[in-house]
Request: fold
Amino acid sequence: MRLAHYEPLSLSDFPGRLATSVFTVGCNFACPYCHNPELVTATADTPQLAEEAFFAFLERRRSKLDGVCITGGEPTLHTDLAQFVEHIRSLGLAVKLDTNGSNPEMLAHLLERRSLDYVAMDVKAPPTRYAEVTRNSRALALAEASIRLLAECHTVHEYRTTVLPLLFSEADIDAAASMLPAGSTYVIQNFVLTKTLDPGFTSARGFEPWDLEIIAERMRLHYPSLRISTRGGI
Reply:
């Protein structure tokens, strides 16, 4: 695994658990609002965190942690992800995967092995704009396949969309949500400016909280468990 860094303790990345979040290098999407641009633009020479160092940390802290959130970048691009997950589980820790849904084969493999305790999948855009937002012509078909996999599995999961007025209208948000089965656990993440991949988004702002709550209230007719988060632009 090509690892960038880890956050020793997170109270919000893995619902209901005290977790470490570890970030993988590389992504096959180039969403303009991405707040981890250094992971998208990384090259073979980009400094990495050694797996041995990460697992040494987990060994020291395993009695104080409940789980590990694997995020990125895009973790499913790494062919050794399954082995990485099993190593974490061998320490008695639960595993959450954050994914853009672009590798349904890897996702299916992990789900079939029951290797994951929680999956959060990003639904990046409405169908008609998926390629535009992700800069990936195959993104929509791959995301639809991953949505179906999660909808049919028994693993706890959620879908989430980062929203900002500069990029998405209210109709766009509705269209993105329409890709999901009714009743899905859905999270609207209001964009929070930190860093962005596209310099043209450095002055972007999220929705006003009251405006987003009005949108969310209407959408809860189809997604009763929908919630609003302010986690930035992943």
Q: What stands out?
A: Helices lie at 37-40, 51-61, 81-90, 104-112, 130-134, 139-152, 170-177, 209-219. The chain has one domain: 3-229.
